[in-house]
Amino acid sequence: MYGLHIIGGDVTYKCLSLDTIRKEARWEITFTMYRDTKSGGADFDNPASFGIYRGLGNNWQFVRTITNIPVRNRKVIPINNENPCILIPLNVGVESGTYVFQITLPIISESYFLSFQRCCRNNTILNIIDPGGTGAAFTTEITAEAQRMGNNSPTFEKLPPVVICVNRPINYDHSANDIDGDSLVYEFCAPLTAGGTEGTTGGNPFSCNGVTPDPRRCPPPYDEVTFRSPMFTFDKPMGGNPIVKIDPTTGLITGSPNILGQYVVGVCVKEYRNGQLISMLRRDFQFNVTTCEQAVHANISASVADSTNYTINSCGDNTIHFKNLSTDVKYIKNYYWEFDIHGKKETYNTRDVSITFPGLGQYTGKMILNKDIPFAEECSDTATITVNLYPSINADFGFEYDTCVVAPVMFTDKSVSGAGPVIKWNWDFGEGKSGAKNPFFEFEAPGLKTVRLIAEDVNECRDTSIQTFNYFPIPALLVVEPNTFTGCKPANIFFDNLSSPIDSTYQFEWDFGDGGSGNVLSPTHIYTESGVYDVSLKIISPLGCITEKKWSNLIKIVDSPVAGFTYTPEEPNLFDNVVQFTDQSSGGVAYQWTFDTLGISLLQNPTYTFRDTGRFVVEQVVLHRSGCTDTARALIPILPFIKFQMPNAFTPNNDGLNDVFLPVGSFEGIAFYHFSIWNRWGDMLFETQDYREGWNGQRSNTGEYAPPGVYAYIVKYIDEKGQEQTARGHCTLIR
């Protein structure tokens, strides 16, 4: 199985006992492995196998394989970010697991070499060639001198950092501890590689190029990973500006990585005793350099905001309420406000601050988040503040107009400013706007008017004045437009009142000339008699202004005919389908008949033949000599026709004549049908719901033959009008 999960590890040893008589020592080996929990790669090997070899330099002999070592102490490594105000991305995760076993080895003049080999590393690693095909070898060497003295290898103090923020300085303590008190020297070194991709899609996974190399077949020495030089090398594995480096004495890693990515880094710790190198601890780890987000941002409510500079302008008010909008509050530990007031520094420490300044002028200050928090310079942010205190401005205006006359209203600016003249005016009349100092404005509609003036001075200080007044003039000209000037009796005449400006709040007094009146803006009136009529209108505004007008001979009403007709037969059907229409109208001189969509006629008394069933609208239009018309309509159903008769005898002798007893007639339009035959003892011999099926003289038409005699029949059905009908009678069966 392809690993694609290995991001590092280290191997340490501890001497549990030293037997100088038997010349052997017992050791405890601890291998700590780190895997990427976010890559979707393989889990820890469980169990795992380790190889043990003996030799020196490049010559090593296989000793034995330690098998079936389970992983334990699995834990997710916390993302320790020393700066609480830097937000770490969520797509980074590392888990550690340990493999521990004990082994007794003879003390020899050579070294023991222990290793764990596995492929592969993350494909996304930036600083080595072919990371997805490059495995890892995690090793430790117990030298002859370490065996003789029962040495304990150094162990790292801390877990490696999971995340490093790009373009931010790092200061990570990668030091180790040595319980024997030996001297330790730190350096970057090349991680080791072992195994490959063989066995993922074919081949032997246990070969030295396989994903899980066989320790017996794959002894050291192991190759080093190939860095992408010259940008990256084993001693400069991450580049950076300044270059990321490790202090040889303290193990402190410093620098500032400036390229996003994942990097393989090797750290070697050389252990010296009395000036002699006796052991070397090697850690191989993947460092993730990613974009980190700063969590605190200084922000205040201001008139003008530009990056970190905030300007607050106040006109006529020396007390400023500073509204703090800084985020994220959970990362903010303190607030520090500082203002220079005539050379005196005044400070505050609350989130929001209210300050009364001594007078007009310009004042400067600043607001600092998380001031003086140790080791968290980037956990702080600063807002630079400028306060301008200007004289006040007061907006005001007046207006003049004749309440009963439609004319422009004259507005006069009365605004004043302590800074000098008012230089800008912004008028809003609801129906329009103006930028003039003293504008005229004519409103299109009456009503309670709200006018707003925003006045502005040389300091861009603004003030607003809002006033309301009643605007209800009477129209200079009354205009009425009827929907028709000539109507046919009875006539519905709509009078559209086009006078302006008016609305429904005005009073209206209409006189339609026939004794009728109205009191709405645009009324409808019904004239019931023919004649010529004057119309008059009086309008009274809500303020009591009056205007009126009379229109002589405005409306003419002429006579109309009265349409009407009858037809026979009253209940036509498909067999009785010729319908005679008889005119019953009055006052007509011409006629037009429309028979649904089937045809038309201009005769006074037409006849029409309906050739299909259905419901048809017949319309009569009658024309008066005045040109007026009237219309009458009728919905005429043409129904299907159901009519049948029953024979009184039949001879079922299979001669082809009168062999079946069944109803004879028309059944079109029948909705339900049930036909049954009964003998004299009340036994039903036959039934059907198909009017085309008759009785052949046998029980159910297939059973025993009925003897000659008289039989009863019952026919039940629903006719064309939806009514239930029943027919009963007798028939004689003759054989």
Task: Walk me through this protein's architecture.
The protein has six domains: 6-162 and 186-225 and 269-282, no CATH class; 295-390, Immunoglobulin-like (Sandwich), CATH 2.60.40; 393-471, Sandwich (Immunoglobulin-like), CATH 2.60.40.10; 480-558, Immunoglobulin-like (Sandwich); 565-638, Sandwich (Immunoglobulin-like), CATH 2.60.40; 642-733, Immunoglobulin-like, CATH 2.60.40. The strands form 17 sheets. Strands 1, 2, 5, 7, 11, 14, 19 and 20 form an eight-stranded mixed β-sheet that branches. The chain has a six-stranded mixed β-sheet with strand order 22-23-29-28-25-26, with no helix packed on it. Strand 37 (447-456) and strand 38 (462-471) form a beta hairpin. Helices cover 1% and strands 49% of the residues. It contains one helix and 60 strands. By secondary structure, the chain is an all-beta fold.
Beta percentage is over 45%
Mean of pLDDT: 92
C-alpha geometry:
flat
- How many strands, which pairing sense, and closed or not: the largest β-sheet? 8 strands, mixed
Radius of gyration, in angstroms, nearest whole number: 54 Å
Query: How many helical elements?
Result: 1
Secondary-structure-based class equals mainly beta
Helix content percent band: under 10%
Number of domains: 6
- Tally of strands: 60
- Whole-Å distance between the termini? 95 Å
